[in-house]
Design brief:
transmembrane, three-stranded antiparallel β-sheet, about 70% helix, single chain, about 350 residues, EmrE-like
Length: about 350
Amino acid sequence: MAGSHPYFNLPDFTQPSTPSTPPSLPSHQRCWPSDATKGLLVALLGGGLPAGFVGPFSRMAYQASHLPSLELLIGRCLFHLPIALLLKLRGDPLLGPPDVRGRAFLHALLNVLSIGCAYSAVQVVPAGNAATVRKGSSTVCSALLALCLESQGLSGYDWCGLLGSTLGLIIIVGPGLGTLQEGTTGLYTALGYVLAFLGGLALSLGLLVYRSLHFPSCLPTVAFLFGLVGLMGSVPGLFLLQTPVLPNDPLSWSCVGAVGILALVSFVCVSYAVTKAHPALVCAVLHSEVVVALMLQYYVLYETVAPSDIMGAGVVLGSIAIITAQNLSCEREGQVEE
């Protein structure tokens, strides 16, 4: 009798075979990226890479027309104000619900302080080093704050990636800190590093505050408030602390426009990512900004990149790979498979 063997279940080779097609999983069994994976990828591609261009472009604007840092912050805040039209079309309050309005304003204030410190630091120290100190301090502070305030732990691989990325940042910035010049130049350089550190601390606090906000249209609301609070603080500060400059060359205007657009994209992506993944991991993935800034520092600004910078950038990239690989997972039928 033609057919399969009763004991070995062998197929009948006497009949013509039909081409086999790989079985497709039902829609409820297909593998989709988990929330943590989505958050880290968005932070890497939409947060870190665009932000890496902000520091060098800011330095180019300063070198071309001595554009003050607060004036550059005003230009960036102007790109956030049109989000008010989106909130109006959706019928949402511009300042957020009354019960969370205070925390929303606090988040905007912390981000304005972080960006203001970063723009000031990049004018006196190399863009790559300023981004290194800011991202390193934000990562360490985010991990400590999440452990102390949220009781949110990390796995061993995550800690390995965090320590590795911090080590890479120390390798990059360590030699520069050890060779500070004496006198006024060295004092300004040290002040630039202090401002970069404070910018990272304010960034980590802002991310922690944002994770506590839960209401519809949260992301566009905080983006609009950033522009509003930034203008309210930077416009008076510009006339009191700095001298306004009206750029008259296309390079400065192009840099201001590029900084505003890229920074807005990075702001939105980082705010989304921190709701999906641990804030310390998001900050660690954002270390990719340092690598981009170092590349632009060498190829565009023609500033020296030391061998320690290259070595530290390699360590940072390896640490990002560890964190990303550890958190790569897929969700199937409501369960997470790594």
